[in-house]
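This section describes the prediction task in plain terms. A model, or a person checking by hand, is given the sequence of a single protein chain and must write out its three-dimensional structure as a string of tokens. No templates, partner chains or ligands are provided. The sample shown here is typical of the held-out split.
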Amino acid sequence: EVQLVESGGGSVEAGGSLRLSCTGSGVSFTDSDVAWYRQGPGNKCELVSSIRPDGTTYYDDSVEGRFIISQANSLNTVYLQMNSLTPPASAVYHCAISIVDPPGTRGTIFHQVPCYSGMDYWGKGTLVTIPS
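The expected answer:
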């Protein structure tokens, strides 16, 4: 059974930082596209950042230069370092993965999806709050 567990959320003052973690079991992140989505109104999830098995990363324009995605293969964990946080970033952040099959191919990572769709597996999310 595949499980994704996010952690690291919380409340932080504007301008502060948080590091989210996504740890997987039953699946290897080295064979997967891993994405962080931010849940908005109407159960819509917007792509914040992603990392592919070859190390290619993506960042939404709203977080470019402030967020860093990284992967610890030995721990089967992906991190999202979030710096200079502002109140609009408050949301539930979900980790999601899609298994790359066959290896070396490039799957689609959708920029906006209904939460819990578009990727093979999703975590339940971790809440990030930046009070205004």
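For orientation: The chain has a mean pLDDT of 95.
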